[in-house]
Amino acid sequence: MDLIMNNTDLSSFEEIKNIKKQYGEKLVILGHLYQRKEILDLSDYKGDSFALSKNAAEQKNAKHIIFAGVHFMAESAAILAQSGQIVQLPSMNAGCPMADMAELADVEHAWNMVTDALPGQTIIPITYMNSTADIKAFCGKHGGAVCTSSNAEKLFKWALKNGDKIFFFPDEYLGRNTSNALGIPRDKQFLWNPHKNEEYSAKDISSAQVFLWRGYCHVHRFFSEEHVKETRTAYPDAVIIAHPECREQVIANADYSGSTSFISKYVENAPKGSVIAIATEVTMVDRLAVEYPDKKIIPVTRSICPDMFQITLKNIKETLDNIGSRNVITVSDEIKKFGGMALRTMINVTMGN
Q: Which of 75, 85, 208, 317 could form a disulfide with 133 if both were Cys (CB 3.0 to 4.6 A apart)?
C-alpha cells in the first residue's frame, strides 16, 4: 500500500478537509476498515459494516452521507437514511461479486421449494450484509434479518430461538463457520447450489437445520490451510487471526477468527513486540502495520479487494464537488420498508434491545 501521497492526492486531501469544514455536521463520511489510511483519516466514522450501518442509522443532522465503501454498503445506508438525506458512493465501480451471487429470482425459487417441502415449519431467512438491497428486503418481508461477520452468531441464535430452520445468504463460508461455532452438526448444514435446485428432494430439505447459499468472497476464499501452515513455520510465535469469510480449514488452523472490527481491536490491544498474522484484505493489514510500528503485523498472504480500491481521494473530491447529484444511491419505498426491517432487526438483536 502506498502511504506517501503524491501531489494530486495531497491536494485532494486538503480540499476535502476544507469542504468538510464548510458543511460541518451537514456532511458525514463513512469509511470501511478496508479503505486506505488517507481515506479513513478523512472519515467521520470508520468501522466494519455493522458499525457503519449503526452510524448511518444514527445520523440526524447530516444531509449528505458519503460512503467510502462498496455498493451494498451505500445501499444499506440509503435504506436507513432519514427523509431528505442523500447517500452518495464515490465510485459506482465499487461493487461486490459475492453480493451478486444471490439474485432475487433464484432466492425466491429456492425459498418456495423449501417452504413447500416444510409445511407448518418456520424458516428464518438471514442475509449477510454483503448482499443486494432486494435480498435484504426479501429477508425483512419474511421475518428475517441481516447479519455481519461481527454478529452472525447472535443472529443465528435469535433465528433458531424464533424458528425451526435458517436459510442463510449468500456466503457459504461465513454460514458454515458460524454453524460450526454454534455446534450445529455438519449433516444438518445443507449447501444450496441455485444451479441444482431440481436435484434436491424433500428428504434433503427436511433433514437440514441451516441452508447455506453457495457464494463466497473471492478475497477470503483465496486463503488456504497451506498459507496458514507456512505462516506458522515462518513465524512460530505469531498469533494468527482469520476473517470468518475464510474457508473452514483456515479458521480451524487459526488462533482466532473475527470481523474487521475484532481484528483491529486485537491489534490495538496486543502488547508491544507482538507478532500477528492476519488473513483478511491486505490493505487493512498494511495499514495496521503502519499504525502500530511497535508490533509486527503481517498478512498470512496478500489478497486485495479491487472493489474497495475503487474509492480514491480523487473521486471523493469529485463527489463533494457534485454534492447531492453525483452517484446518488436510491432505493424503492418497498425496499426501504422491508430492508429497513431486516437491518433494524439486526441492530436491535445485536444491541440486546
A: 75
Whether residue 352 lies inside any domain: the answer is: no
Lowest mean pLDDT among 78-87, 197-206, 336-345: 197-206
Task: Provide the grid cell at 13.
Answer: 486531501
* Per-residue pLDDT tens over the stretch 156-183: 999 999 999 999 999 999 999 999 999 9
Residue 154 has pLDDT above 90, yes or no: yes
CA distance 231 to 272: 20
State whether 89 and 106 are in the same domain: no
Range of the domain at 313: 7-95+308-335
Q: Name the domain count of the chain.
A: 3
Three-state SS letters, 195-227 = HHHHHCCHHHHHHCCEEEECCCCHHHHCCCHHH
What is the distance between the alpha carbons of residues 304 and 323, in angstroms, rounded to a whole number? Answer: 29
3-state secondary structure of 2: coil
Residue 67 and residue 111 in one domain: no
Q: What is the mean pLDDT of the chain?
A: 94
For the domain that residue 75 is a member of, what is the CATH number? Answer: 3.40.50.10800
Strand-strand pairing, 189-192 and 239-242: unpaired
CA distance 277 to 230: 11
Together in a domain, 262 and 197? no
CA pair distance 72, 176, nearest whole angstrom: 22
Distance CA 190, CA 167 (A): 9
Tens digits of per-residue pLDDT, 210-236? Answer: 999 999 999 999 999 999 999 999 999
Measured between alpha carbons, how far is 199 from 92 in angstroms, rounded to an integer? 37
Whether 192 and 209 map to the same domain: the answer is: yes
Q: Which alpha helices (H) appear in 292-352, and where do they start and end?
A: 313-321, 333-351
